[in-house]
Amino acid sequence: MSGPSAPVAQETLESVAARLDTGGRLVSAIRWGSGHINDTFAASFAGPSGPFRLVLQRLNRHVFPEPEKVMRNASGVTRHLQARLLASGVPDAERRALHLVPARDGADFLLDDAGEPWRAWRFVEGARSVDVVDEPRTAFEAARAFGEFQRLLLDYDGPPLHETLPLFHHTPTRWARLAKAAEADTAGRAAGAAAEVDFALAREPLSRLLVSLQESGDAPRRATHNDTKVNNVLLDEATGEGLCVIDLDTVMPGLSLCDFGDLVRTAASPSAEDERDLSKVGVRDDLFAALVRGYLSSAGGFLTPAERDCLVGSAKVIVFTIGLRFLTDHLEGDVYFRIHREGHNLDRARTQFALLRSLEVREDALRRLARSAAEGL
After folding, report:
1. Distance CA 349, CA 302 (A)
2. Rounded to 5 degrees, what are φ and ψ at 59?
């Protein structure tokens, strides 16, 4: 779970909804999505012009202790995206960027009676997300949408973006924390995860790949999403087009390659993030090639040669990084990610490490595939 998180009472939802500038009345709210961190609800309202829906979210203070910084980033980025889309005359621009619904006092978020932060977004109707990708068109559209998100933020001129989660994708720090957690063994779980710990500790050199690119100047920091799971892009239900990037809590300065790597992690293998049958976990060529084509079709114009050459490497690093995080959380007693069963974070770590093995074994072939996909654009 994401730290101690109290259940959300109906009275709380009603109180939060009443303090939002919605112009309507809350009718019902149901839990929504498959996120690990925040509490998310699809809320139905009745208004003078008819029914409408909003997404209500309670931010996890354990993960985001400074919600005002998270919301300042989200507000600045969404306003910039909306302006860029409208200025470029993109069809259906209103559905291609998130829109915050302010509180009655004009603020971008509010605190409930327990001091917990809440925010509301307009619901993007006629769109869906997927947790598992099983066909290349979906992979292409998701990657294109995330690349376009990065491209539109190249000239971001809003309030300076806060680093809401310092060292979030700094893999050497994640590796060191795992080593410390394994040694401390505060939850008494190290013996049951010894093979996974050994696997991770043996790959310390991999942790430095993207950091070295950044330090050399070959991978500049830009405004990036930093959590590009495939279910963080909405697809148009009618056309399948990648429509709108969501879950902006981790938008901050970062490396574009981290965004691409995380997308490969969740979209190049047609398996769940916590798949227990590891024989099902592995990179599928057609999905990987579609991700490269989709991403470069929108982001290729601003990437450096070194970044374009490190697409496979970025996937290895981010798969490794997320595996480190899941394994560390398991060893520390499941204090960060929400779990749904005993050993859930260990299962997640095993899945990541199985995917990393696949990337390692097939790295040369995937690099050739990436070059071929890029040449075909």
Report:
1. 33
2. -75, 145
Query: How many whole angstroms separate alpha carbon 294 and alpha carbon 288?
Result: 10
Token pair listed for 20: 């939002």
244 within 8 A of 264, measured Cβ to Cβ: no
Domains of the chain with bracketed CATH: 10-65+100-123 (3.30.200.20), 136-375 (3.90.1200.10)
Residue that has been written with the tokens 């809003």 in this structure: 158
User: How far apart are the C-alpha atoms of 264 and 292, rounded to whole Å?
Assistant: 9
Reported as a single tens digit per residue, the pLDDT across 282-315 is 999 999 999 999 999 999 999 999 999 999 999 9
Note whether 197 and 182 are within 8 A (CB).
Answer: yes
Q: Where are the alpha helices (DSSP H) in the chain?
A: 10-18, 67-87, 136-152, 171-184, 194-201, 209-216, 256-267, 285-299, 305-308, 311-332, 344-361, 363-375
* Strand ordering across the sheet containing 242-245: 127-128, 233-236, 242-245
Q: Determine the pLDDT at residue 6.
A: 59
Is 0.90 topped by the overall pTM? yes
214 token code pair: 């950044």
DSSP characters over 207-238: GGHHHHHHHHTSS-EEEE-S---GGGEEEETT
The residue whose two tokens read 């690099």 is: 367
